[in-house]
Write a structure and sequence with these properties.
The chain is built from 15 helices and 18 strands. It is an alpha/beta fold. The radius of gyration is 24 Å and the shape is globular. The N terminus is likely disordered.
């Protein structure tokens, strides 16, 4: 990561398009140096440096979110690294109002409004010209205002589908989806599960000179040449619904909508799909099959679901084991039996039978004095890819239960999240504990 910190000089900040853009300058040669500078800034009560060194430290660590949380006697700063919150440092309550004010000024929020939540944004440019987007959210709590800052590197390269952890039959289905001329492809999962990355990876494959691609996002997380990307602004009534309506007058081939949030959005998306457009979007459900139930609950008629939905991808993120920091072990017989039962029937071309003969799993092996997290580095996806077909469509038209839909999907060759996760655990990509964390 870049050894940089946002400058506290007011002469280096400018407001552009409603966002405050802050330049950065190098201040530390290592992660430890930056951590020490943050601690010194707290001791000295230098508020601008506290905020900026916290951002710098987060960039060096590879953080996705910074949490600044007031408690009864102190304020703690935590970073979300590879999906897990880690305690970093604490500072006294008496400087917390000044820290909050500093962050609000950076992100163009009202510093005198402490009764209601606020959302803002600021942009940080690093010394090596990387553009980091900070989405800032404030929340009143009983101990004071809490701040969460989400860091998004807008210059990061888009990974291809296999780099996300999509393989085997899941990859075959995804490649089939990207060749479809029309229909809806939905990606589902909780916040922070990598849905946007999956959409962008698909768009990267679809991005060709002869294709008009429109996206409506909140926010635009990656800028890609060849795409017509639009930032929705709900505060001026420019939302996903309005964007979709406009898209249909822009002669599109492919439309990407950030999220299906309500009945009106899905209604227009279906209309677009049925009139020859390929629509990609996200939705919040537990798995691929439950998305079908969710669509029915939103008032979509079964015949519209079967005629418009082409595929649904459910996903989670798990931490990768560090190659030199993992050790093999033989799990308990009960776990071995559970794995064999779950993976029963997986074709040999997707699962080497030898992996099930003598089951070996892998776990984090941290060095002395290190936390267990030191045995992990980065994350990979666990996926469940459902493709619409005649058998599934007949069940949907008959208003079958979720269990019936799940059995049919598995009969058609769909890997469940747990199956994909167990295979990755057998391959040593991640630990079984990580799979339990996201599937149970």
């Amino acid at each position: 990561m870049s050894t940089a910190v946002a400058s506290s000089s007011s002469g280096q900040s400018a407001q552009q398009s409603g966002q405050i853009v802050t330049q950065v300058k190098p201040i530390a040669s290592s992660l430890n140096d930056c951590g020490q500078l943050l601690q010194n800034a707290i001791i000295m009560g230098n508020i601008p440096q506290v905020v900026m060194y916290a951002i710098t430290h987060a960039l060096l660590v590879g953080t996705s979110d910074i949490h600044i949380e007031p408690e009864e006697k102190t304020v703690r700063i935590r970073y979300r690294v590879d999906g897990v919150l880690q305690h970093v440092i604490e500072y006294p309550l008496n400087i917390h109002p000044a820290v909050i004010s500093r962050i609000k000024i950076m992100s163009n929020l009202k510093i005198d409004e402490q009764r209601i939540p606020q959302d803002g944004r600021t942009q940080v440019t690093t010394q090596d010209n990387r553009s980091i987007d900070l989405r800032v959210s404030s929340l009143p709590t009983v101990n004071g205002e809490k701040i969460v800052m989400r860091l998004q590197d807008k210059t990061k390269s888009i990974p291809d589908l296999p780099e996300l952890g999509i393989w085997g039959s899941n990859l075959e289905k995804m490649e089939h989806f990207t060749k479809m001329p029309n229909g809806i492809i939905l990606v589902t999962g909780p916040t922070g599960s990598g849905k946007t990355n999956t959409l962008y990876s698909a768009l990267a494959r679809l991005n060709q000179v002869g294709v008009n691609i429109l996206t409506f996002e909140d926010p635009v997380e990656y800028q890609m040449d060849g795409l017509n990307q639009s930032q929705v602004k709900p505060e001026i009534d420019y939302d996903f619904v309005r964007g979709l309506r406009t898209a249909l007058r822009q002669d599109p081939d492919i439309i990407m909508v950030g999220e299906i949030r309500d009945e009106e959005t899905i209604e227009i998306a279906i209309r677009a799909a049925l009139t020859g457009h390929l629509v990609l979007s996200t939705i919040h459900t537990n798995n691929a099959v439950s998305t079908l139930i969710r669509l029915a609950d939103m008032g979509v008629k079964p015949y519209l679901i079967t005629s418009s939905i082409r595929g649904i991808i459910a996903q989670r993120l798990v931490r990768r084991l560090r190659g030199e920091r993992k050790e093999a072990y033989t799990p308990d017989p009960a776990i071995q039996e559970e794995i064999r039962k779950t993976l029963e029937g997986i074709p040999e071309k997707y699962l080497d039978p030898k992996l099930l003969e003598t089951i070996t799993l892998y776990r984090s092996k941290a060095l002395e004095g290190e936390p267990i997290e030191a045995g992990y580095t980065g994350r990979t996806g666990v996926f469940e890819v459902m493709e619409m077909n005649r058998g599934l469509a007949d069940l949907i038209l008959a208003r079958a239960s979720e269990d019936e839909l799940m059995k049919q999907s598995q009969k058609d060759g769909m890997f469940t999240l747990k199956q994909d996760g167990y295979i990755k655990a057998l391959q040593g990509v991640t630990s079984i504990e990580e799979i339990y964390r996201i599937t149970q």
